Amino acid sequence: MENNQNVPTEEVKVENNSQTTNVQNDSNTKLYKILSYIGILWLVGLIVPDVKDNKSVKFHVGQGIVLTIAGIGLNIVIGILNVIISIFVALIDVYVLSILVSAFFGILYFAVSIGTLVLMIIGIMNANNGKDEPLPVIGKFAFYK
Length: 145
What we know:
mainly alpha, 4 helices, 77% helix, elongated, disordered N terminus
């Protein structure tokens, strides 16, 4: 009778080990999905062999790539406009206008930074909750899926 009792216990242990492995794999993919939204760390999910073919990780990496490109791209456009308008204002030599232009572009940089941060938080929350939902406004432009 003791032998019969040991067999089910071993089967339960095997089942528990496979469940533990699945939970560990889920937490690993969750980590890679979350990293996708933190700056250029989407590269990690793009190149790590264990998860680079995972459909959900690919989705979040694509969203992270678009978020990074959008954030950097908007800052570059704002910087170029800032230089062009500042040169124009310097040529007409209106001091008050140059202060207003500087304040305007400072606020614009801040708004882009806050918008990027909000989208980053939304993406991280989606990744943490296991949702494959595109980011608002820019998510539809993801080209890596």
